[in-house]
Amino acid sequence: MFFIIPVGSEEGVRRLPYVTIGLIVLNSIIWIITGLMLSGQMGELEQLHMRLLEIESHYAYQFLETDPGLLREVDYDKVRERILAGEIIPPGTEDYRQWKNLYEHYKVKYGKMVFEQFGFKPKEFNLLKLFSSIFIHANFFHLLFNMLFLWLVGCNIEDDWSWKVFLGLYLVGGLVAGGFHAMAFPSSTTPLIGASGAIAGIMGAFMIRRYKTKVRFAYFIWFFLRPYVGVFSIYAGIALPIWFIQQIIGASWSMESGTAYWAHIGGFMFGAAMGASFRFLGIEKKYITPMVEDSFEKLKLSPRMKEANRLLDAGDTNAAILMLLQVVHEERENQDARLVLARLYYEQGNHDDALTMYNKAIEIALRKANSEIIFSIYEEIKEKEWIKGLNEKNLYTLANFLEQNGRYEEALSLFGMYIRIYQSGSVRPKAIYRAHLLFKTKLKDDKMARNALAFLRKEYPNWMPR
Fold first, then answer.
1. Which end of the chain is more exposed for a tag (fewer CB within 10 A), N or C?
2. Do domains 301-380 and 391-466 have the same CATH topology?
3. Sign of torsion, CA 272 277 282 285?
4. DSSP state of 254
5. Where are the alpha helices (DSSP H) in 281-334?
6. pLDDT tens, 261-318?
7. How high is the pLDDT of residue 315?
8. Which residues pair with 223 in a beta bridge?
9. What is the pLDDT of residue 56?
10. In the chain, what are the domain boundaries?
11. Nearest partner of 437 among 465, 418, 398, judged by Cα
């Protein structure tokens, strides 16, 4: 037995993804409401179904004589079509009258079911129902996995392209996905429900826009009576195409099933096409990025930050640096100003000052425990190969942070770096001990765990873990 679920990406966002969170909350609320409605509806239908069966059971011999296969298949729709046609229960009898009244009542109730009212049926094409179907989910796990994938890709796309573009892509992607499903099964009367087609559109855009972003997955494997649990990362440019291929295989192996493979395929292709268009036609650079940056500009409350950004837009970098220095002097916890300064210093080749600003920015983020910002700064510093330039406190705290977030190999690398660089570091024995525990409990490398413990005892014979 095994399963793999997405738990997040390794890229941070610049602000809270309100629309992504809003969609998750909205879908959850709708699921709760429709679930309560469905519970009552199912109870009523079950009562009517049992009353129909009471009458139908008196005529079971008719099926045995004419079509015993119907009884084996237990296809109530076909059975009742034949009864309605007068082939089983003699028309004009009291049984037929009672059965027909019950059946008509049953069909009315069935037509008012949540999935029938708000789900999309290709054979009865209805644009309003195509839209409403995006927000309806069959059960808790249907909702859970859809929302996990939405959180995985939605936060970054909303951050990159603004909430307006993100929401438009989500809704239009859902409509396109439903259209693909309708083209694949034009005569289907089975209601299509769920946000997976819309989310597939965001996944397609994410694959193009953030193909280098690592996606984290948690896994559980039960092998030879032993459970294995952990987290691994894989580039979006690899993980999402694999998922897309799975959908194509699923679509080729099945006709109409409980999984809307063609909706997933259509949504994903639409999102990927939009992502490619934005990138290669220059739409993102020319229209979307200025709009996003302008929205961030409006969020900045500091007049000096606004002025610094205005100077940068005007190309006056030196004046912008002076203004940003005033901001960090007045606003000690302003990590954004320090990050901008770090990048400007880096572009000018002033690496010492750039590293100082990066150290201060990540120190603030670590103190505030802002995971998304920490990951973002960490990836930025790592890309520049400046991890060794972090000060003693930041290096050790960042290693702990990575360990707590399941990035064990990277945490081990940082602990090792701390041990090598800070020979007289105040928490060096703790760093060695953390490395020992990572080898032993997370990476399952007993030899390296023993080596780390032996090194700890040699270097600090009197030190004891607390």
1. C
2. yes
3. negative
4. -
5. 283, 289-299, 303-313, 317-330
6. 999 999 999 999 999 999 899 888 888 877 776 665 555 446 777 788 788 878 899 9
7. 84
8. 226
9. 81
10. 42-116, 301-380, 391-466
11. 465
Q: At 393, which amino acid appears?
A: K
Neighbours of 245 (CB within 10 A): 10
- Could you tell me which of 222, 215, 239, 219 has the C-alpha nearest to residue 151? 215
Looking at domain 391-466, which of 1.20.1250.20, 3.40.109.40, 1.25.40.10, 3.40.1380.10 is its CATH number?
A: 1.25.40.10
Pairing of the two strands 226-235 and 2-9: unpaired
> Ramachandran region of residue 406, left (φ > 0), alpha (ψ -120 to 50) or beta?
left
The answer to whether 14 and 378 have CB atoms below 8 angstroms apart is: no
Least confident interval from 5-9, 35-39, 186-190: 5-9
Q: Taking the domain 301-380, which CATH number applies?
A: 1.25.40.10
| CA–CA distances in Å: residue 248 to residues 142, 243, 253, 345 | 20, 9, 9, 48
Q: Rounded distance, CA 445 to CA 244, Å?
A: 35
Specify the residue for token string 């493979």. 261
- Which among 82-86, 279-283, 408-412 has the top mean pLDDT? 408-412
C-alpha separations of 212 from 124, 274, 421 in Å = 42, 18, 30
The residues facing 229 across adjacent strands are 220
pLDDT at 423 over 90: yes
Task: Output the average pLDDT for the chain.
Answer: 88
Mean pLDDT of 57-69: 64
Of 54-68, 107-121, 236-250, least confident by mean pLDDT is 54-68
Sheet containing strand 214-223, edge to edge, reads 2-9, 214-223, 226-235
Sign of the alpha-carbon torsion through 167, 172, 177, 178: positive
